[in-house]
UniProtKB/TrEMBL annotation:
GO terms for molecular function: metal ion binding; nucleic acid binding; RNA-DNA hybrid ribonuclease activity. It catalyses: Endonucleolytic cleavage to 5'-phosphomonoester. This is ribonuclease H. Gene3D superfamilies: Ribonuclease H-like superfamily/Ribonuclease H. It comes from Humibacillus xanthopallidus. Belongs to the RNase H family.
Length: 161
């Protein structure tokens, strides 16, 4: 299967409104989602009970559900093909294995106009900004503090919410 490559951003934040985002001019959505998980784990090694709010079923399942079968099958999927993005996935597993505390993946709705998960909305907004800057050839490493009460969903240039 060919995944469309284009500008991609990664955004992550915490419950205090501290956010980080970065972008790349070309990449796939799945790689961006996996890199967000990896960055979150690496950026917060000291958190004893770490909860990752995630809107990507793919990234969540790569990190958790599919691991046992992929390891048993030599990193081959159910079609006997090599697992895509295996280098990032294995790096995520190493980060998970090295943590003293627990990590929970909490599935939240993506691009949610009701803004039920304002941290996810903020991460999406920052990721979109980083992707747009990367596409334009500008610096795309962003750090910010946001008031989560003021975060509102918006239409993006990469799709409507």
């Amino acid at each position: 299967m060919h995944w469309k490559s284009g500008p991609r951003g990664v955004g992550m934040g915490d419950e205090h409104g501290n956010y980080h985002a970065s972008g790349q001019a070309h990449g796939t959505h799945n790689v961006a989602e996996l890199n967000a998980v990896l960055s979150a784990l690496r950026d917060h090694p000291e958190v004893e009970r770490f909860i990752i709010q995630i809107d990507s079923t793919y990234a969540r399942d790569c990190s958790t559900t599919w691991r046992a079968n992929w390891e048993r099958n030599g990193m081959r999927n159910s079609k006997k093909q090599p697992v895509a993005n295996a280098d990032i996935i294995v790096a995520i597993w190493r980060e998970l294995d090295s943590r003293a505390g627990s990590v929970t993946f909490l599935k939240v709705p993506g691009h949610d106009p009701s803004n039920a998960s304002p941290m996810n909305t903020a991460a999406d907004l920052l990721a979109t900004e980083a992707a747009e800057k990367a596409q334009a050839g500008r610096s795309c490493d962003l750090a910010s503090t946001l008031d989560l009460a003021l975060v509102k969903p918006r239409a993006t240039s990469f799709g409507k919410w």
